[in-house]
Design goal:
Blueprint (H helix, E strand, L loop, with lengths): L18 E5 L6 H7 L9 E6 L7 H11 L11 H8 L4 E6 L5 H14 L3 E5 L10 E5 L5 H11 L9 H8 L1
């Protein structure tokens, strides 16, 4: 939604391309890294996060999820892209597409269409592998060291009265 306040501020000029794919192994933190590294820059860009992990690999579900994230007024049809482009308008938008691995083919086509029709949009597509589409800049994210992985795990753990022990985390991730 164009009148929505940006969730984070990033520098449009600091990003190397309009489609950036931070790729790395699971639990390496590409989404958090994607936003955290840019937190210190000053500019106005609305950031919208689309969590793709629970979605089936269909164009319809992807269109719908992106439209929903942008609060776009989409008709009940299969193609929500016109509503997404309209919602973006002339606003500089960073669309963080998280966990793309299982929807790469359908998503690559959608991202190409979106970037072709919305010149103020920028996409960060986090995945274990790149989209392999025109104009994509791939940034390889190395696995986190054990201490950083532990800190991220603890940070994301919910509903616990005490942080999990490192041995417990190793057992879960083994």
């Amino acid at each position: 939604r164009r009148d929505a306040a940006p969730r984070r501020c990033v520098s449009w000029s600091s990003l190397p391309a309009r489609l950036v794919a931070p790729v790395g192994p699971g639990c390496s933190g590409p989404p958090a890294l994607s936003l955290d590294r840019r937190r210190g820059f000053v500019a106005s860009m609305a950031v919208f996060v689309v969590e793709l992990a629970p979605l089936p690999p269909s164009r319809t579900s992807l269109h719908s999820a992106i439209a929903h994230a942008l609060d776009a007024d989409a008709d009940a049809g299969d193609d929500h892209l016109p509503a997404v482009v309209d919602a973006i308008g002339t606003t500089r938008v960073l669309l963080l597409l998280d966990n793309c691995e299982h929807v790469l083919d359908a998503l690559a086509e959608i991202v190409e269409e979106l970037l072709g029709r919305a010149p103020t949009a920028l996409v960060l597509a986090t995945s274990r592998e790149p989209l392999r589409t025109a104009g994509e800049t791939v940034v390889v994210i190395e696995p986190l060291d054990e201490a950083a992985a532990h800190a991220m795990f603890v940070d994301r753990a919910t509903g616990r009265t005490a942080p999990p022990e490192l041995d417990d985390i190793r057992a879960i991730c083994a």
